[in-house]
C-alpha cells in the first residue's frame, strides 16, 4: 500500500553465495520488495490503528500496516484475529489484547504470546513463523518460564518484551506447491543427490551404476558428518537458560 512505501525497499538476496556456493540449490525466483518490520515495543505508549493486513513474500506470516497517532507508519507481524481498524499499543500498562506488546513481567500466566525478545532490548527473535505461539507457564524472581513451539522450556528475563496472541496464517505449512515451477518462483532450484554426482563433487559420488555411498555415515559436500550429527555449540551462552530441550 502506498502509505507504507517508506518501509519498503529493494534487498539484494545472496542466493546461497558467499564468495563461493555455501548453500546449494538456491537462485532465481521472483523479485521481492523487502518490508521493514518495526523493532518490538516501538513506538512506546502511542496508539496505532491497523490500516492494512498484507502478504509478505519474505516471511510465512502476514504483516499488519499500522498508522500511529504521531504520524509514523510501521509494519508488524500480524496475529490471528487482528482486524482492520483495531487500535494497538506497546507499553508497560497496555491492556491484555491481541496484538498489544508488553514486558513479560506484566503478562499473566497461561497467556499465548509471540515475537519474544531473547534479551532485553534485542528485539523480537523467538516465535515469529506462521501459526506459532508460546505459553507463559511460570514466574520466579526476575525470570519467566516459557514453553516454545518446539516443546523447549526456556527462561527469559522478565524485562523482555513480547506480543499477545498467535502468529497469523496458520495454514501456511499445509499449502501444496502443485508444480515444479512454484518452487522456482520461490528461488528453490532442483536438488541433486550426492550419490548421483562425481566423486570430485561429493563424498557420496562415483562408482559404477547405482553404488552405495561407501561410508559408515552420510557426509555433507564438504566431508562433515550429517543426518543426526548435533551442530549446536557445546558451551553456548544460552545453555543456562534452557530447562528442557525440544520436549525431551
UniProtKB/TrEMBL annotation:
Residues 96-225 form the Large ribosomal subunit protein uL2 C-terminal domain. Residues 1-29, 193-248 are annotated as: Disordered. It is found in: Plastid. It comes from the Eukaryota. Residues 16-90 form the Large ribosomal subunit protein uL2 RNA-binding domain. Residues 227-236 have a biased composition (Basic residues). InterPro entries: NA-bd_OB-fold, Rib_uL2_dom2, Ribosomal_uL2, Ribosomal_uL2_bac/org-type, Ribosomal_uL2_C, Ribosomal_uL2_CS, Ribosomal_uL2_dom3, Ribosomal_uL2_RNA-bd_dom. Its main location: plastid. Gene3D superfamilies: 2.30.30.30, Nucleic acid-binding proteins, Ribosomal protein L2, domain 3. It holds the Pfam family Ribosomal_L2_N. SUPFAM superfamilies: Nucleic acid-binding proteins, Translation proteins SH3-like domain. GO terms for cellular component: mitochondrial large ribosomal subunit; plastid. One of its GO terms (biological process) is mitochondrial translation. Keywords: Chloroplast, Plastid, Ribonucleoprotein, Ribosomal protein. One of its GO terms (molecular function) is RNA binding. PANTHER family: LARGE RIBOSOMAL SUBUNIT PROTEIN UL2M, RIBOSOMAL PROTEIN L2. Belongs to the universal ribosomal protein uL2 family. Part of the 50S ribosomal subunit. This is Large ribosomal subunit protein uL2m. It comes from Halimeda micronesica. The gene is rpl2.
